[in-house]
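Q: My labmate handed me this sequence with no annotations at all. I'd like to see what the chain might look like in three dimensions before we decide whether it's worth expressing. Could you predict it?
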Amino acid sequence: MSVSRFTSLALVLAIAVTGCRPPKVAALPGEIAPSRQLPIGELPTGYRKIVFKWELQDGELTARGDGVARVASPDSVRLDFFLGGGLGSGAAVLIGDSLQVPGPDMIRKLIPPRPLLWASLGRLELPAERDTTMRVDGAILRADIGSPIQWRVTFRGDTLSRLERVGGGRLLEWVDRSAGNKVQYRSEETRRSLSLEIQRSDAVQAFAPSIWHL
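A: Here is what I predict for the chain of 214 residues:
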């Protein structure tokens, strides 16, 4: 191979690798927030049953189906996923710091890491960090947590609307729940995304203890 062709090939490969890297995180917009703390970001008291439709995109794979989340405030949730056409199902249980996801790889692809899973439900559950920078942009409060930044969180009023995991100054993965009844998760590293469309969210009586055991 000639030097010129080798150089061209190396350049193409370098561009391809760079293009696959997660995007850089921009500086926080808005004005520096006056002395204040982040909203608590807790789940409403009681029990809720949330019915949703889901769609997973992972490379060339697309899968979709129905799902149910059973939430017990403040720190327990069971998720059940059903593949369209009755082709299969799976479940996950999150209680505090303990996440159980038995079953096939497909189900694991549907479950974000624990802090992002909680964020999809509106709960902010992050390790304590001393370094937090907050800025206000109208009704929106954003905060960078950690030094270097590990998390970026967005609140609209007291409602958690977005959580981003950051590494090396780049956006690695995120959950966004700002679009009404839709929740979006995406891993920028793997290009995997999961979309949820909430059909119903109902207050219910306490769940049977058996649902927390898989």
